[in-house]
Amino acid sequence: MLMIQFPDITFEAGKYVDEFVSFLANNLEVLFDFIFFITSRSISGLTDFLMIIPWWLFIVIIFLLGWYFKSLFSGVLYGLFIFLIGSFGLWEEMMITISIILTAVIICLIIGIPLGIAMAFNKWVSMILRPILDAMQTMPSFVYLIPAIFFFGLGNVSAIFATLIYSLPPVIRLTDLAIRGVDKEVVESAHSFGSSRWQTLSKVQLPQALPTIMAGVNQTTMMALAMVVIASMVGASGLGEQVLVSINRIDIALGFEAGISIVFLAIIIDRITNGIAEKVQRRGGNQ
Amino acid sequence: MSVQIQVKNVSKIFGSKPKSVIPMIKEGLSKEEILKKTNHTVGVYDATFDIQKGEVFVIMGLSGSGKSTLIRCFNLLNKPTDGSILIDGQDITKCSRDELKKVRQEKIAMVFQHFGLFSHRTILANVEYGLEIRNVPKEKRREIAMQNIETVGLKGYEDKYPDELSGGMQQRVGLARALTNDPDILLMDEPFSALDPLIRREMQLELLDIQERLQKTIIFITHDVNEAFRIGDRVAVMKDGHVEQVGTPEEIIASPANDYISEFIKDIDRSKVFQASHIMTKPNALVSIKDGINVAVKEMRENGISSVFVVDRSRRLQGIVTIDDAIQGIKEHKQLSDLIKKDITVVAEDEYINDLIPKALESSFPLAVVNEEQKLAGYILRVHVLSGLTSDDVTESEEYVH
């Protein structure tokens, strides 16, 4: 008897996950409603705020940021990029996209930095979190769009949820790495003066780790931006939605304009966060 | 002097179950046996010694000898696996977390090999760190920090960042930061090893200078024998976690406890360890300026010597008289004071032999050794200067000729 075919053993893992997700959705409705409320409010609040800013002022702000953190040329270039996106007629979409990214990144930092610190200090937390982070990063992003819809319905909040799962790992990992990477003698010297744990963390470890943490923030931001199009499949509006529309209509012109706008945003956000990281680096540790 | 720190049977084991190894140490198993049997590394093996208040206590050993592990036991950066460390009678190994914080904040401060400076803070902010975490008001801590920055000679650099300073200057910051806490005890973990030799020498002298002024108890780690013997009042030699010998540099050189230590100190430059007071002879013949020439001649005859030192009533050195001059003087009815030769070489008690060599070569008389009050403490024959360098036995021979 040659065993060619897989035996008739079935383990329906997916079914259990399905049941678990339904269970969560049914029993923790209040929690999800609360998260939904907060998140959607902050996105719309942020979008409204960005839309109040006169278009020229926004360009000036981007120019100044680019100038301060990179160079005069960069400032001019970034200002021009924003002007171009506006001239494509995608000003509002851009603002929505920026709001979604900003909200996602802020939530990422609020969750990610403490988790990263916990990982650095506790090997159990580290052991548990590590495989979860691996899964978050390797799981095809379409897969967790499904439970997102289950919990939050179609729309920006689901998009944020999906974006979070995808872009949270770098900030956690790099915070962990950064804290553990602080020079041992520097931490010892903080202890030797009788610092409490909190004093050591806040006055020495975090400032020393900041450059590396900033690198994590940069990566998280870029990954959030990368999710823009995929997130639009669960109903996120903004530039991603335009890309999706152009695919459906086979509209090359719109596809190009929306696509290049995302590229422009990516360049601007990457360079500016990078510039912030470099500015911090000059005074931080971990070199 | 009184005992400030008592180290009693301190062991530090690294591994998964350190406590389980303690019985083996009590049985006297060696470090290698323990490593083989249990896969635990013994960092410090049953160390016991006392440290006096106000002394510079050097712990010397090669890398891996456990010296850095041991020094970290004094402020519990390493918690000893067994044994106790009493600082002013308080067993710090049994301290609660708050008590330990207090000890670290008030009693004991540390200087690190690679400085351990906070690169994100200015020099001033680094130096005032110890006070900042004790919630000392800003004005006050700034004032104290500035004083200490001045003490170590870095005035004007307080707004710079550590990476803008040279290695030597960075370690000065480390020292100022430790001094700012006004600790009784200063732990120094190979503080000058990362510095180049010239700067190292300068820092050693400065440390001794500061020590003289502030009278701290200093525990100093080094792998450099010459450094250990130059600055240490007492030295502990460590090997494989064992404290092999504790003693003054002279004691260790004069009677090394075992072959390892003999080997270790073989390359030591004796001329930089032994001082004039170690090789000088107490004068058994002395003539007072009030005495006559006859007394001088008698003294020389009785002691079989050819010259004698002349002192005044309070034993202050006046000069030297030779037998030839004295006999000549008797014939010519001269006063003793007319015969005194003043061209003798006077050295201080704490001058190193190294510095005596050129003086001994130039002088035609024995070197006169005077104490701090300029009183005659002893003399050194020129030949003794050289024999002090080579012989293991530095007690002097009794001859008094030249």
TrEMBL record, chain A:
Q: Name one GO cellular component term.
A: ATP-binding cassette (ABC) transporter complex
Is Transmembrane among this UniProt entry's keywords? Answer: yes
What would be one Pfam family of this protein?
BPD_transp_1
Give the membrane topology: Multi-pass membrane protein
Fetch the InterPro entries from UniProt.
Answer: MetI-like (IPR000515), MetI-like_sf (IPR035906)
Residue spans making up a coiled coil are none
Q: Membrane spanning segments where?
A: 20-37, 49-69, 75-91, 98-121, 141-166, 222-240, 252-273
What is this protein's record name? Answer: Glycine betaine/L-proline transport system permease protein ProW
Q: Which organism is it from?
A: Oceanobacillus oncorhynchi
Q: Which gene encodes it?
A: proW
From TrEMBL, chain B:
Report what the protein is called: Quaternary amine transport ATP-binding protein
Native species: Oceanobacillus oncorhynchi
Cellular component, GO, one term? plasma membrane
Listed under subunit, the entry gives: The complex is probably composed of two ATP-binding proteins, two transmembrane proteins and a solute-binding protein.
Q: Which NCBIfam families match?
A: proV
Tell me which SMART domains the record gives: AAA, CBS
Q: Where in the cell is it found?
A: Cell inner membrane
Organism domain of life: Bacteria
Please name the taxonomic classification of the source.
Bacteria, Bacillati, Bacillota, Bacilli, Bacillales
